[in-house]
Amino acid sequence: MKTKIFKKPLSLIFVIIILIGCNSEEELPPDKLIGEWEVYSITDEEGETIVWDDLTNSLIELIPEYACMEFTATATEQIVSTRYVFVDVNSRGCLSPAISVYTWQVSPETGFYEFTQGTNVINYLVSFSNNDNRMTWNDQTSGAITVWNRIVTTTTETTE
User: Fold this and answer.
1) Which residues touch 159 (CB under 8 Å, ≥6 apart)?
2) Diameter of the chain measured on Cα atoms
3) What gap in Å lies between CA 88 and CA 106, rounded to an integer?
4) DSSP letter, residue 140
5) DSSP code of 136?
6) Checking CA distances to 100, which of 4, 19, 25, 46 falls within 20 to 30 Å?
7) Is 72 buried (19+), middle (13-18) or exposed (0-12) by CB count in 10 A?
8) What global pTM score does this model have?
9) Which residues are CB-neighbours of 96 under 8 A, at least 6 positions away?
10) Alpha helix ranges (H) inside the chain
11) Given 3.10.50.40, 2.40.128.280, 3.40.50.1360, 3.50.50.60, which CATH number is that of 35-150?
């Protein structure tokens, strides 16, 4: 008799757990785009590739103050922002950062990443390599290609 008493509540609990587990929404993993990125190279419409480190190293050799140059991107679940700092050719320093902010989504029809800023929509074919630490944006309108490297921060623990 005691086993029947335990079987019913145990069965009921088991059924409830299964129902709750089946009804819960499956959480999708975060998109590989999310994170901090620094530009590796830029290829324009004519196919000319500029490796960012080569460019900055050459300029810094000429004028050390140009070390302030940068080109980075930050992606969250809702926005992508790019930050571009280039040299001021009229001085020995850099211009103010040019920051662009876009909302983004992946088109279910094409698989392209759609970056939207106001009424401007840029479609990129985005691919990932190097254990998702390298990202390539191929602009579907202009053909320009931008290659990014993920900024990986390492933390070191100190023991006392």
Assistant:
1) none
2) 93
3) 36
4) T
5) E
6) 46
7) middle
8) 0.76
9) 85
10) 2-23, 52-62
11) 2.40.128.280
**Who wins on pLDDT, 45 or 53?**
53
Q: Supply the DSSP string of 100-142, one letter for each residue.
A: EEEEEEE-TTT--EEEEETTEEEEEEEEEETTTTEEEEEETTT
- Which band of pLDDT confidence, cut at 50, 70 and 90, is reported for residue 37? very high
> How far is CA 102 from its chain centroid?
12
Structure tokens at 2: 């005691």
Token look-up 């819960």 returns 24
pLDDT at 112 over 80: yes
Where along the chain do its domains lie?
35-150
Lookup: tokens for 19:
């129902």
Residue 121 has what DSSP assignment?
E
